[in-house]
Amino acid sequence: MRFLLRPKTGGLAILAAVIALLPLVLDNAFHFEIAITIGFNAIVCVGLNLLIGYAGQISLGHAAFVGLGAYGAGVLTASHGWDPLAAVGAASIGTGLLAFVVARPILRLQGHYLAMATLGLGIIIAIVLNIEDQITGGPDGMLVPPFSAFGWEPSDERQWYWLVGGFLWISVWLALNLIGSPVGRALRAVHGSEVAAEVVGVDTTHYKVLIFTVSAVLASLVGSLSAFYGMFITPNIASFFNSIEFVVMVVLGGMASTFGAVVGAAILTLLPQALTVLEDYEHLIFGLILMGVMIFMPRGLLPTLAGLRWRRRR
Amino acid sequence: MLSEFLQFLFSGVTLGATYALVALGFAIIFNASHVINFAQGEFVMIGGMATVALLGAGAPMPLAMLAAILLAATAGLLLEKFAVEPARGASVVTLIIITIGASIALRGVAQLVWGKQFHALPSFSGDVPLQVLGATLLPQSLWVLGVSAAVVVALFGFFNRTLLGKAILAASYNRDAAQLVGINVKFVLFLSFGLSGALGAVAGILVAPITFTHFEIGIMLGLKGFAAAILGGLGNGLGAVVGGLIVGIAEAMGAGYISSEYKDAIAFVLILLVLFVRPSGLFGRRGTERV
User: Fold this and answer.
1) DSSP code for B257
2) Is A288's CB within 8 Å of B105's CB?
């Protein structure tokens, strides 16, 4: 039973408790800001973990979908006067469609070729956001108007915290349900052996495309919301480095563990904050920590700590 | 017309030769270990930066270059010994993250030791351009092409004519069988990383007088080298060279005729298009999965 660390309900209850109690120890706007960033990253990772951890397909370009969500929502509201909620919806539908269209040819590729294709797609999107400055404002970035939904406008960090916290809990709940459903079983079959899965009648392409699209839409939603939250976006949001960071979060926390993805996102969002005191040594130490964790805990933190043992056959 | 085309071709082939060297580095490590080494671009950066630093410290040019190549090779050997070797048997994603961690750490060291500024390396033999049918050709471009060609020929000889080279090839085809006939597979792996580091450094030194060098220069060079290696078919040496040249020429032509702003995107558009048609690259072995 490597795919669930604890009973689903137990994990969801703990997550709800953590989200509910965290504000008691957060005592200024900066702390809330970090917690909100963790939430955003965690949601992307929950989606990406479905793809990497369960379907076994790597993506080195997921930040591009976050970027599309952010710029879709930003451009539609700022330049075209759309209602924020409609803009979020349109951006996620657009991103989902794009992901759906490219998923079929891309997910046909395997291993390193898939890594290259997703990496290339991500870099192309990041470059487009940088160059098309009449629409996106280019490298200088663009301002985004405040968020509002049905007349409600999150006015301070605390309200944003509840919005993001709720969104995170719902996405974890959805992911766990998806994993427990026949779709999840099919995905694990694809991960185990694609050929074997096809032989027993699993439409592997269909499921891979489905999960790729779902994870892209989640990333896009996070991008849109984070654009409204920060009220300012730059193409940096779609950078290759951010894509890598999401993958690292998923793997660090523990592949094929939804809560692991959340933990990984939390650690990797906090770590650079903690390392800023090291100033010039920040990148060196960050790189070394990354290598160390992966060398000594190749399966990620949570599965290793939980003491689950299963040997991967090669 | 012709002069313009030639001009783009010259810069494309020069770029392409650099990408080919980086791609060969990817191919050698991939063959030996099935690891995609995302720190390959950092070897390129070390080559250029160390040469500049040693020149600045008063070392003569050839000595500075040699030392820089040795330094990058050492970085490769250390990476294998302390990061790849202990993680043997880990999944592909895990290994990718380890090499990405290494690339971040190497950039961190470079930034500490050599600073964040751009550095220029003087051309090897002056900056007076040659005129060829109305197009200008920098002497440094000839150096890039000549040295790259020499390196490729030398590598070809090494892998086909020497016992050690053949041992590396054998280990890449079938690790267990190679071990059984008495090849020290561990040493082969170790050596491949050193060789790859040295190759990267050569590319970095050659290109530094043209593009300047910087602690982050390895990121794009590494990614494009990866694209070139994939384009030719992973693990195929000839494919890596051809892939590098194609990426370089396409980039220069695209920048010249289509849009210079989208210069960096061209390599990736190209690789996506090729992969959609040929999922294992141009010369890649069609993969069969064992169930």
Assistant:
1) I
2) yes
Q: Does B279 touch chain A (CB under 8 A)?
A: yes
Name which of A120, A287, A298 is nearest B272 (Cβ-Cβ): A120
Distance of alpha carbon A159 from alpha carbon A260, whole angstroms? 26
Q: For residue B102, list chain A residues with Cβ-Cβ distance below 8 A.
A: 287, 291
Residues B216, B107: Cα–Cα separation, whole Å:
7
Q: Confirm or reject contact between A162 and chain B (CB < 8 A).
A: no
- pTM for the predicted model, two decimal places: 0.88
- Asked if residue B13 belongs to a domain, the reply is yes
Q: What is the pLDDT of residues A215-253, one digit of tens each?
A: 999 999 999 999 999 889 999 999 988 998 899 899 888
Cα A268 from Cα A249, distance rounded (Å) = 6
Name beta bridge partners: B131: B136
Q: How far apart are CA B22 and CA B42, in angstroms?
A: 10
Eight-class DSSP state of A281: G
In the chain, the amino acid numbered B141 is S
Residue of chain B nearest A128, judged by CA positions: B262
Total structural domains within chain B: 1
B218: its two tokens: 């390895």
Residue A217 contacts residue A96 (beta carbons within 8 Å): yes
Task: Say yes or no to pLDDT of B286 above 70.
Answer: no
DSSP state of A82: -
Which structural domain, as residue segments, surrounds residue B227?
Answer: 2-126+138-151+182-277
Q: Is residue B160 part of a domain?
A: no
Evaluate whether residue B8 is within a structural domain.
Answer: yes
Residue B165 lies inside a defined structural domain of this protein: no
Interface contact A200, partner B, CB < 8 A: no
Residues 226 through 265 of chain B touching chain A, CB cutoff 8 Å: 226-227, 230, 234, 261-262, 264-265
Distance, CA of A2 to CA of A16 (rounded, Å): 23
Q: Are B208 and B55 in contact (CB under 8 A)?
A: no
Hey, is the C-beta of A282 within 8 angstroms of any chain B C-beta? yes
